[in-house]
Write a structure and sequence with these properties.
The structure is a single chain. By secondary structure, this protein is an all-alpha fold. The chain has one domain (2-58, 74-230). 76% of the residues lie in helices and 0% in strands. It is built from ten helices and no strands. The chain has helices at 2-23, 32-56, 71-89, 92-103, 109-128, 130-136, 144-171, 180-191, 193-202, 208-230. The radius of gyration is 19 Å and the shape is globular.
Length: 234
C-alpha cells in the first residue's frame, strides 16, 4: 500500500510536466537544454532571495515573554503579517529571473513562454517538493499531505507558464498600451497570490484542501486573463 501511495504522488507531481513538455512540441525543437538553463536561473534566483530574506528577515530566537494581556499577542500577529507581506514581495525577483530566462531562449513567442514556464516549474518542483515527496510518501503511515503537495505542483505548472507569458507580454512593444496595466496587475497578483491564503491559514480559518482550491481558482483566473491578453499579440 505504501508503494502505491508513493507511486500516485510521483505520478501526480511529475507526469503533467512530462506530458506538457512532450505534447507541446518542445521536444521537437530541442528545447531540453534551454529548460535546464532556465532551471539554473531559477536556482540562482532563489539563492538570491534566500540571502536577502536571511539578512533582513531573520527567524526570531524564540517566543516573546510578555504580560498576559492581549496587546502583545496582537502586536505579534501584526508583525507576522508585515513579515509575510515583505517576504511575498521578494517574489517580484522571480519576474526578473523569468525575464532573464526568456531573453536567453530563441524562437517564437509561444515556444519561449512554454520553455521558460516548464523549465522554471520543473526546477521548482525538484528543489522544493521532490525530496519531501520522495521521503514522506514512502512512510508507513498514509498522509494526505503528499497528495496535496503533488496537486499543488500541477497548479504551480500553470502558474509558472502564466508568469512567463506575462513577462513576455510586458517586454513586447507591439501590444496595445491599454493592456500594459492589465499585465502589470496580473503579474503583481500572481506574486501576492499566497498572501491572503497565508493570512487565512495563520488565523486557522481554512483547511489545507481549501487552500489548494483557492490557489487553483486564482491561478485559473490569472491564466484565463493572460490567455486573453496573449491572444491579442501572438
Amino acid at each position: 500500500m505504501t508503494f502505491y501511495h508513493f507511486g500516485n504522488c510521483i505520478a501526480l507531481a511529475y507526469l503533467p510536466y512530462y506530458l506538457a513538455y512532450k505534447h507541446s512540441g518542445l521536444s521537437e525543437y530541442g528545447a531540453f537544454w534551454k529548460c535546464i538553463q532556465t532551471g539554473f536561473i531559477y536556482a540562482f534566483t532563489q539563492l538570491c532571495k534566500m540571502l536577502v530574506l536571511a539578512t533582513f528577515f531573520p527567524i526570531p530566537n524564540g517566543p516573546h515573554h510578555e504580560s498576559l494581556n492581549s496587546e502583545p499577542a496582537f502586536h505579534d500577529v501584526k508583525d507576522r503579517v508585515g513579515s509575510e507581506f515583505f517576504k511575498d514581495s521578494m517574489d517580484l525577483v522571480d519576474l526578473i529571473g523569468m525575464y532573464i530566462a526568456l531573453s536567453r531562449i530563441p524562437g517564437r513567442g509561444h515556444m519561449k513562454v512554454l520553455t521558460a514556464g516548464i523549465g522554471w516549474g520543473t526546477a521548482e518542483l525538484l528543489l522544493t517538493r521532490a525530496f519531501a515527496i520522495w521521503v514522506g510518501a514512502k512512510g508507513v503511515e498514509f498522509n494526505w499531505r503528499y497528495i496535496q503537495m503533488a496537486l499543488d505542483a500541477n497548479t504551480s505548472l500553470v502558474h509558472n507558464v502564466a508568469i512567463a507569458a506575462l513577462v513576455w507580454l510586458w517586454s513586447r512593444h507591439d501590444m496595445k498600451p491599454g493592456y500594459y496595466p492589465v499585465v502589470v496587475f496580473l503579474a503583481g497578483t500572481s506574486c501576492y497570490r499566497t498572501l491572503l491564503v497565508n493570512l487565512l491559514s495563520l488565523a486557522s480559518l481554512i483547511d489545507p484542501w481549501t487552500v489548494l482550491v483557492i490557489k487553483a481558482l486564482v491561478t485559473l483566473v490569472i491564466g484565463a486573463c493572460t490567455i486573453k491578453v496573449y491572444s491579442t499579440v501572438a
